[in-house]
């Protein structure tokens, strides 16, 4: 289905240890995490909070397991804080990823985000003013310029509980940012949970998509999260997200479209769950087998 050597398959550490909720997987070590990723058949990972900050130590640990760093999450606050604060943190983050050989930098706007707040996920979603949209677009363009200094791209991560969550908001962001400076991360689970058709975003914005997160959703749990007015992190703990092949998203058309359009880059399984309930290695193997079957890679 996919042409040889065009797609790399990885998995994110959030199934083993959760950066926003350290109590989830607190006993799971970095070594266990990357060893089980390799054992399950993946070739890459994004960076978690337990990963060594020393690039030489991290490189050695990954080389032993034949893994690469695909990227890492960066929180921007372009709508709520002076650009200087985001710029300084971004440069440090960029240089770390550059040293690790990454080509893209995942950026998510956390200004006014409710991801970590105890408020209803669907009812309390923030909406940006025109002034905030302008700050976001200007700031992202500048971050894109900084990334290009190292031959890298920023990929914007649309996300539940933020000001860029829906297709309409993604469309607007793509319209007001420079296509040569701001690319898009395509996340199946966040689109599906938001009530959007991931295929619409994939087809419309494919030329801007340079990074993919494969996340599945359990419809029954998602319905309870909406009905009970549950917060985002509580929804995670209740199991609204899962790995591809274990939820309700049909990834067949998604893989077919990515292959047909000759997507090049990383596809990473990203499914935040409680590892005491959803065994990370077992979940990783489920995802890997499903992708092998559906995407033929």
Automatic annotation (TrEMBL):
Residues 37-290 form the Xylose isomerase-like TIM barrel domain. It is an enzyme of class 4 (lyase). It catalyses: scyllo-inosose = 3D-3,5/4-trihydroxycyclohexane-1,2-dione + H2O. Keywords: Cobalt, Lyase, Manganese. Pathway: Polyol metabolism; myo-inositol degradation into acetyl-CoA; acetyl-CoA from myo-inositol: step 2/7. Its EC number is 4.2.1.44. GO terms for biological process: inositol catabolic process. Coiled coil: none annotated. SUPFAM superfamilies: Xylose isomerase-like. It comes from the Bacteria. Its cofactor is Co(2+); Mn(2+); glutathione. GO terms for molecular function: manganese ion binding; myo-inosose-2 dehydratase activity. HAMAP family: IolE. Belongs to the IolE/MocC family. This is Inosose dehydratase. It comes from Halobacillus dabanensis. The gene is iolE.
């Amino acid at each position: 289905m996919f042409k040889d050597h065009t797609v790399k398959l990885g998995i994110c550490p959030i199934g083993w240890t959760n950066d926003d909720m350290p109590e989830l997987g607190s006993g799971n070590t970095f070594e266990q995490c990357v060893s089980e990723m390799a054992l399950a058949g993946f070739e890459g990972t994004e960076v978690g909070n337990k990963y060594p900050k020393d690039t030489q130590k991290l490189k050695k640990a990954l080389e032993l397991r034949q893994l690469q760093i695909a990227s890492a999450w960066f929180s921007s606050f372009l709508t709520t804080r002076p650009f200087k604060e985001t710029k300084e943190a971004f440069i440090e983050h960029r240089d770390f990823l550059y040293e690790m050989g990454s080509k893209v930098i995942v950026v998510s706007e956390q200004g006014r985000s409710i991801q970590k707040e105890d408020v209803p996920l669907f009812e309390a979603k923030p909406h940006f003013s025109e002034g905030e949209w302008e700050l976001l677009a200007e700031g992202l363009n500048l971050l894109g310029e900084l990334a290009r200094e190292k031959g890298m791209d920023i990929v914007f991560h649309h996300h539940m509980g933020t000001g860029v969550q829906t297709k309409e908001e993604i469309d607007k962001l793509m319209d007001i940012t420079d296509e040569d400076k701001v690319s898009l991360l395509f996340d199946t689970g966040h689109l599906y949970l938001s009530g959007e058709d991931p295929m619409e975003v994939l087809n419309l914005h494919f030329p801007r998509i340079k990074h993919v997160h494969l996340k599945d959703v359990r419809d029954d749990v998602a319905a309870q999260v909406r009905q009970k007015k549950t917060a985002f992190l509580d929804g995670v703990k209740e199991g609204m997200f899962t790995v591809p092949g274990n939820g309700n998203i049909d990834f067949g058309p998604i893989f077919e479209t990515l292959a047909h359009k000759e997507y090049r880059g990383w596809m990473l399984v990203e499914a935040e769950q409680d590892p005491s309930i959803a065994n990370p290695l077992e979940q990783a193997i489920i995802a890997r087998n499903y992708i092998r079957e559906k995407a033929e890679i």
